Every structure is written in C-alpha cells, then in structure tokens.
Amino acid sequence: MDHQLEFASLSGDHNPLHVDPVASRRLLFGGPVVHGIHSVLWVLDRAMQEESSECEITRVRAMFHKPLLVGDEVVATIERSSDSIQAELVSNGAVALTLKAETGNRRDQNSCSPKNEIPERAVPTELDDEKIATTSGVMNLYLQDELARKLFPKLATLIPAQQLSTVSTCSRLVGGECPGMHSVFAELQLTFDREPEAPLLKYSVKRYNGAIGMVSMELEGPGCHGDIRAFRRPSPKQQPSISEIAKLVSKDEFANQRALVIGGSRGMGEIAVKMLAAGGADVSFTYNMGKEDAVRICNDVESAGARVRRFQYNVLSESYQPDDPQDANYRASHIYYFATPFVFGGNKGVFVNELFDKFCRFYVNGFVNALEQFREPEQCAVLYPSTVAIDELPVNMGEYVAAKTAGEALVSFLKKSDRTLSVHCPRLPRVATDQTVSLVPVKNGDPVEILLKEIRALQALDSSN
C-alpha cells in the first residue's frame, strides 16, 4: 500500500477505494484498487526508461477495462517508437488497461508550472444524480517535485511538469470531485496542441446517463483539452437494523442456540447475527478486518436489549491465538459460515488457478479450521451456504463455482463420516449485499427473507436429529 498512499499524496486522490483496505472491502471490487491514473503514468514512465532527451506528450488515450487490485500480478506489454507509445496491462488473463500516446519535441513551457506542493487533502464529494449532471469547476494544479521524481523518475525529468500534473489531477477530479466518493474511472483522452496559459484544469459535465451512472466530462487545461468518461458506482449496501429484523422472528425462536457466525461483520453474516439475537440466541460472531463494522453491529444489537459478543478470527490462519484467553475455549452448538473473499474477481472464459486456490482456502480449508476450533464435540448444527451459480455456471465465475462445488463435496463427506454433525447446505440465489452491487442494475433477492428461511430450516434439521 505504500505506493498507493504516495500516489494519493501526489495527486490528491484519497478516495477510500484506493487507500483504505478495510472500507474498500465493502465497495464494488472487494478490496483496494490501484489508481487508474497511477497505472497510466507508470506505463509512460516505463516506456521512457531508455531515453535521455526531453520531450512532451502531444496526445494520450487510456481506457480502463477492469480494475487492478493492490497485489495483483500484472503483465505489461509496452511498445515505444520515436513518436508513439502503445501499451497493455493484463491481470488474471484479462486486459485491465490499454494506452496510446504520442510524443514530440519539448517546447519551453516553464512559465506555466504547477505549484510545487502536495494538494490539500479533502474528503471526496458525494453527489446525487441531479448535482452530477450540472457539475463544473476549476482545479489548481500541483506537483510536488521530490515525490514525482520518486514515483515517476523518467517522466518527471523528461516531460513538462504541467503535463504530468494535468494527468495526475484527473485522478483527483474523478475520485474527489466528480463523480467523487462513489466513482470508477473509465477513459481519459487528452490532446496537448496549444500554448499553455494558467496552471488550472477546468471541467464540465456534458452528459450524464443516470440509468447506468455514466458521466462524460470535457476538460481544458494548460495547453490541452480532452474528455473523461467515468461511472458513479453504487454506495455500500446497508443491511437492516435489528429492530426491523425483530419484526419477523419470535422472541425466543432461537433461544436453544449457542450460535457462532463466522464472518458476521457485514452482508449475510451481519443479518444472521441480528436475526439470531432477535430470536433469543446466545450469539457470538467473528470479524477479520472490520472491527468498526463489528462494533457498530454490537451497538445495534445491544440497543435492542439482546446479547452479542464479537472476536477477531481469520479462517485462513493455521492457529488461533485470541486476544481474550476465554475465546480459546469457546464452543458453539450452531455455526453459521459466511467467510468469503470477493466473489466476482474472475474473468469471462478464463480459469485462474490462483483464484481457485484462494476460494478453496475459504470454502474448504477455512471451513474445516473453523469447525475444528469452535464446534461442540457432542453435537453441532451448521449452516454452510452454497450458491445457485453451481447450476447456472456463469462464464466469469468458474473458479468460484469450482470451489463451492468442492465445498459441497466436503459437506457431504462430513455428514457421512460424522454423526454428531448436522449440516444444512442450501444453494442460495444472488441477494442484495456488498458482494452483489454492480454498475449496471441487477435484480437481487431479499437477503433477510432468504436467510430467515434457511436458519429455520437448520433449526428444524437440528431438532429432528
């Protein structure tokens, strides 16, 4: 994350999608995403590695096809001729970025230099549809020379400072001003074909398609003009409060359960925690990174007079070393397993072994680890949700489907070999959670209604055994 934070300082784009590993796990891509403009400038810098003569960019076009998550392996193909650059970044078998640029001899443009400062940090704006459609503004250009030379040593040496600053400021525009907080960069086009005047970037929204959240902006900067295309991404999904969920369950409906929800700090796990607590269960839940979310859930549950406790647990850890020694001896009569990575990380028609292994570590290895650590040895009932994607087999989810299929096979093995274990393994439809938000509206099921049905099914299964 160090380079992420450094580029955020250079550009002024501190959007949580890029710099907050905890907050970004609840956003559209399930984790922190490399700034698109960072990847553009990195490619241009690499393309000029063997050069020593000053030049300037005359035209650049970058298209962002898919996000690059922090930690992703990337294959770069860069072709440099005397006056052009063509590049492609590929991750997990799919193209993430295509870039075309043209270069020429450098003119004297020092009279239009940006401020040699770090942009003042600001909270990204949160604009509604009406505001986005009419937004325009003017942004000062900044370029802190020492940091620019650290991140992009060749670019900072060879091209005019206002060109590097103009491109980096586009990141602050999209991530901080328009669309702002809930944004995804899609395309940038800039043409440098005039004499620069002032170190300012002017922008104006020309088209906004609210149905898909697509924003088209026109730009005018020092010596340049161009266009940006971006999307307004959905806000994080907020699950209902315990007071709302309590209307659907009887007060003592789950009072016989000493329930543990693995992965209970968000999504279906969060709903399960509130539902079980509302039904009188003695509820504990685990979180991995989301302590703030866990505290918020505890406050909500306790405000309704129900009982709940939380503790940190990583299903991928080989050993469990709790902060509170009492947690080491915790055993549950009922376990609800919702631990999962981001499920939409696959690419159409491509099967990536590393992604399959990642899913298996959660759905197979992690599940076994949790059972060994927390189940009551005499008798334990488990809800292990599977997915209708096994029946539908989406072509961009092969790794996920294969791992969930392996999970179902594991469940069948456990049920057959261990008579003290009752496992309910329903194939759930797509429901409205953080995991299922998308740029294009998609119909999702009601997670409360669907989960309540399956918790009651587990209760009935446990009672019959």
From TrEMBL:
Q: Where is the MaoC-like domain?
A: 6-85
> Which positions carry the signal peptide feature in this UniProt record?
none
Read off the Gene3D superfamilies from this record: Hotdog Thioesterase (3.10.129.10), NAD(P)-binding Rossmann-like Domain (3.40.50.720)
Q: Name one Pfam family in it.
A: MaoC_dehydratas
User: What CDD domains does the entry give?
Assistant: R_hydratase_like
Q: Which PANTHER family match?
A: 3-HYDROXYACYL-THIOESTER DEHYDRATASE HTDX-RELATED, 3-HYDROXYACYL-THIOESTER DEHYDRATASE X
Q: What is this protein called?
A: Short chain dehydrogenase
Source organism lineage? Bacteria, Pseudomonadati, Planctomycetota, Planctomycetia, Planctomycetales
